[in-house]
Amino acid sequence: QVQLVESGGGLVQAGGSLRLSCAASGRTFGQYIMGWFRQAPGKEREFVSRINFSGSSTYYTDSVKGRFTISRDNAKKMVYLQMNSLKPEDTAVYYCAAGRSSSPQRSDYPYWGQGTQVTVSS
After folding, report:
1. Under a CB-based contact definition with an 8 Å cutoff, are residues 21 and 78 in contact?
2. Cα(36)–Cα(32) distance, integer angstroms
3. pLDDT, tens digit, 9 for 90 and up, residues 44-85
4. Hey, is 58 helix, strand or coil?
5. How far is Cα 67 from Cα 83, in angstroms, rounded to an integer?
6. Whole-angstrom Cα distance, residue 104 to residue 96?
7. Measured in whole angstroms, how far is the alpha carbon of residue 61 from the centre of its chain?
8. If you average pLDDT over every residue of the chain, what do you get?
9. Strands 46-51 and 78-83, how do they pair?
10. CA separation (Å) from 13 to 60, 91, 92?
11. pLDDT tens digits, one per residue of 2-17
C-alpha cells in the first residue's frame, strides 16, 4: 500500500510554470507506476501523464505533450510534474496516483492523493 500527498499547486499567469510534487510513503513505492490526473470544474477527471517503475518510460496526453514533464526519484519516494507554458485550460485540481498498470484509466490506479489546485490566469 502507498499513501500520496501532492504539493506545489498555485496561481500562475498564462505562459508560466509550476512544478508539482507527490510524496509517497510505503516500502513498495518503486513497484508502482505513477500517474498524474486532473479534474477541472464540471468535468471528469482525466489522465495527464504516467511514468514506469524505473522512470525510463513516460507517456503524456496529447494536450500536454511538449509542455509537461513527469519524473520520479525512487530513493526519495517522489514524483514530479514540471508544467511549462501553462494555459488557462490547464486549470484543474491535479492528483497523483499509483497503480500496477500503464493504463490511462482511472480505475487502474487504486491509490490517490488529495489533490492540489492549479489555476492559470489569462
Report:
1. yes
2. 13
3. 999 999 999 999 999 999 999 999 999 999 999 999 999 999
4. strand
5. 6
6. 13
7. 11
8. 96
9. unpaired
10. 23, 11, 14
11. 999 999 999 999 999 9
